[in-house]
Specification:
The protein is mainly β. It has one helix and nine strands, in the order E-E-E-H-E-E-E-E-E-E.
Length: 144
């Protein structure tokens, strides 16, 4: 087993930085660290779980973004920012897109960093659900 720190968390090195894995008694996995490292580990964990289950269905897209609105019942608006290289000038430009996501327990607050996953259409505009929540003030309160 890999080394653990004083809190019982396991450090994991990724190309984006160090993240920490904490596996609960019920088998839940909590990931803490820079958002890019968390996304990297999240993607790899999902692939490993799907492969172990023998899933044949297409992988559901997982995105990380910031909550910008939470005024609706069980719905949050998440802004996902991605960096793309400009075709002519070669400069990296930020592209933003907003998604409406289902927040079953109404835990998300504005400015929380959340991980959302594609799902079946839940309403006219909602096609994602909140998978886990990463917040600056509250640490991590998520359901992976």
């Amino acid at each position: 087993m890999a080394d653990t720190d004083s809190d019982g968390r396991r450090p994991v090195e990724t190309p984006q930085g160090t993240a920490y894995l904490e596996i609960g008694a019920d088998g839940s996995v909590h990931i803490q660290g820079p958002p890019e490292a968390v996304r990297y580990i999240n993607d790899h964990l999902q692939r490993a779980i799907a492969q172990a289950r023998g899933d044949r269905r297409p992988r559901r897209r997982v995105l990380t973004g910031r909550v910008i609105k939470n005024k609706m019942t069980k719905t949050v608006v998440v802004q996902v920012t991605r960096r793309v290289r400009h075709r002519r000038y070669g400069k990296y430009v930020e592209r933003r897109k907003t998604y409406m996501a289902h927040d079953e327990h109404e835990e998300c607050k504005v400015d929380d960093v959340v991980v959302i996953q594609e799902c079946r259409p839940l309403s006219r505009h909602k096609r994602h659900r909140v998978v886990s929540i990463y917040s600056q003030e509250r640490g991590m309160a998520g359901r992976p």
